[in-house]
Amino acid sequence: MLTTRHLTAVAALAALGLGLATPMASATESRQRTTPTLQQSVDAIERTGTVAVVAQSTGPDGRRYATTGVSDTATGRAARVTDKFRIASSTKAFVSTVMLQLVGEGRVSLDDTVEHWLPGTVSGNGNDGNAITIRQLLNHTSGLFNYTADFPEISTVADFQADRYTTWTPQQLVAIAMRHAPDFAPGTQWEYSNTNYILAGMIIQKATGHTWQQEVTRRVIRPLGLRDTSAPDTSSRIPGQHLHGYSDFGGSGPTIDVTDLNPSAAGSAGAMISTTNDLSRFFSALLGGRLLHPAQLAEMKTTVRAASLDPVWPGARYGLGLMEIPLTCGGVYYSHAGDLPGYTTRDGVSADGRRTVVLEATGDGASDLSTEMAQNALIDTELCATGGK
Predict the structure, then answer these.
(1) pLDDT, tens only, 163-188
(2) What is the model's pLDDT at position 71?
(3) 168 in Cβ contact with 264 (< 8 Å)
(4) 0.85 surpassed by pTM
(5) Is the pLDDT reported for residue 302 higher than 60?
(6) Which tens digit of pLDDT belongs to each residue from 54-72?
(7) 89 assigned to active site
(8) What does the pLDDT average to over 307-323?
(9) Of 41, 57, 89, 230, which residue is the catalytic one?
(10) CA pair distance 292, 350, nearest whole angstrom
């Protein structure tokens, strides 16, 4: 999920007037003189206030790794690039991939309405499932209220501790959104809403008879051999060696270990667990055309302007479960960021899938946008250094 921390960060960056875009010639000249190593870029992120950072950069010349910080402040164990972590909204790229596979099989149409698949689920307070298509769910143009904006579990230390082990059904999460009027008429604007992907997961189950977790596992995780990736249901622990997450929820209390969490709170909008290597393999396979037919991959890469992301990702566009971000060296990369309290996932992949960068940072990071900018700089530097476009 993308959390309220991002809204604060976006406002802060807008006030500072910062951005990534620079003239291509000067950016290239500067890069030739001062391109940081992957380790230097990881260290720069840690200096902004994170607990740990792990990163993997993969290209035609092989893989490179860098880590810093500790995976567990209680034991002091050093972070490892093989550690698992909660990928939050990067889950959406997996869910969208499954939906587009169903489209390619003729079992679902992007123009189907939510009402067609989930009668009566989106209704009340001006919400109308007849007016919203699956495409609009996947590209966040539905106008549906983002349920996490009215979800105490991720708002304060006390609320998190009270509900961290609560099991939520998708219907309950959607019902939170239905208490609110739509933000805008479907198809008229763009705004990120986790509600969209909760509904997408429900439609996958209705169309297949299996949960979104089962379909992601069968269609993506197993075929790609992603041994350290999972789509949990209600299990609160991260299995195996992993990074611990830490957060004070905007200063609402002491910093606590937030690692254990019933993932049903995020569901098909952000419940998955993975590693830098597995995420790199997934995004490489996806953009390399190994998971979707050309027509469906083209649909996924068909983007709309996502202007509200500009302060963090200038020029951002959003497709069907994929962000499209400009590179300072020209061209674009594809991505899906992910955030839960204590965990920040960032990734970037070239249009042909041959170059990938995945990083994970734990802890809250800086209260301004210095952590965001350092993460963006690492991805931009790595992708530009290995060929950019």
Answers:
(1) 999 999 999 999 999 999 999 999 99
(2) 98
(3) yes
(4) yes
(5) yes
(6) 999 999 989 999 999 999 9
(7) yes
(8) 97
(9) 89
(10) 16
- The encoded tokens of residue 380 equal 């931009």
Amino acid 303 reads T
Written as one letter, the residue type at 350 is S
The whole-angstrom separation of Cα 290 and Cα 138 is: 20
370-385 vs 24-34: helix axis angle to the nearest 10? Answer: 90
Q: How confident is the model at residue 386 (pLDDT cuts 50, 70, 90)?
A: low
Rounded Cα–Cα distance for residues 301 and 289 (Å): 12
Which amino acid belongs to residue 92? K
Nearest of 132, 125, 130, 133 to residue 150 by alpha carbon: 125
Written as six digits, the tokens of 9 are 């960060």
Phi-psi region of 289 (alpha: psi -120 to 50; beta: other; left: phi over 0): left
For residue 309, give both structure tokens: 């992301």
Write the secondary structure of 248-267 as one string of H (helix), E (strand) and C (coil).
CCCCCCCCEECCCCCHHHCH
Distance of alpha carbon 173 from alpha carbon 48, whole angstroms? 34
